[in-house]
Amino acid sequence: MTAAVLSGKTLAQELRQSLKETVSSLAQNGVVPGLAVVLLGDDPASSSYVLGKERTCRELGMRSFDHHLSAATSQAELLSLISQLNANPDVHGILVQLPLPQHINAQEILQNINPDKDVDGFHPVSVGKMVLGEETFLPCTPFGILKLLEKAHVTLSGAEVVIVGRSNIVGKPLALLLMQQPYNATVTVCHTKTKDLAVHLRRADIIIAAAGRPHTVTAEMVKPGACVIDVGVNRIEDLTNPKGFRLIGDVDYDEVALLASAITPVPGGVGPMTITMLMYNTVLSACRRHGIAFPL
Ligand code: NAP
After folding, report:
1. How far apart are CA 172 and CA 186, in angstroms?
2. Do 165 and 81 sit in the same domain of this protein?
3. CB of residue 270 inside a 6 A radius of ligand 1
4. What range defines the domain where residue 102 resides?
5. Which residues are catalytic?
6. For 58-69, how does the pLDDT look when each residue is reduced to its tens digit (9 = 90+)?
7. 47: domain CATH number?
8. pTM above 0.90, yes or no
9. Residue-wise pLDDT tens digits, 22-62
10. Average pLDDT for the chain
11. Could you tell me if 102 and 194 lie in one domain?
């Protein structure tokens, strides 16, 4: 068996086209969805993610409010900016790029974002609603993974899903979503204290690898026919690449692709979906604010 490649890049392009059309019809009502992007410092990975988000915003005809601040910005200054963005009617979504510098209390910052503009879905109100199965902004990476699985018609109801990783941004919310209606999967969440990762992975119909460690999922751990979603993004040295590095996931792609039924590549899998769902949430937020039906 050779796995079908679940291209997040292709699905993201399709969704972005639909979002572009929605943005253009909103413009006829005088509404331009606006996303404020806040970055502290110049970490290369964070800067690259932020630039990607700002560029995508503009490509879709949305407004991007870019706040690139010094790493020395104080908690009080950042809270003051969040308060200005909360009050700005042109801003429909606020994204604070994580991780924040050590001296910043990230939880306090996230809790000060107006939940109506919490397009990242990290505010406790958004998380609480998600746990209760109420309508809210879903965190972008889990949301993008759900879209990829839906598009590929992967059967989720009753499926054994094993997630590697229990972070607040990927593993935990994804587990909460997949166990609920309408997905109805049976979910196991593994982490570094899991006794035998391979035992869990071998019985999985769907594997979601979000450990941030290369080679976490090897071919011996995968049941033939399983669907494998690789969330991990790891930089490894590659002197043949002009950048000096290349990106790989958490899964041994070449070997696992020979026995899985479907697999996401890295890059080009989950990553493009994450940015797209951020745009989706921002357009949704603009529609909600102006009482316009969201067509997607
Ligand atoms: P994180 O906060 O570092 O969490 C990693 C999780 O994986 C932790 O729960 C950790 O367990 C677990 N883990 C690590 N090594 C393991 C192992 N060998 N066996 C079992 N569990 C293991 O990371 P994150 O923010 O969730 O991100 C995970 C990866 O996804 C990273 O590579 C990140 O860059 C990538 N990512 C990609 C996107 C995208 O859009 N493509 C979005 C978000 C994240 P403990 O809790 O016990 O430490």
Report:
1. 14
2. no
3. yes
4. 30-114
5. 53, 97, 120
6. 999 999 999 999
7. 3.40.50.10860
8. yes
9. 999 999 999 999 999 999 999 988 999 999 999 999 999 99
10. 97
11. no
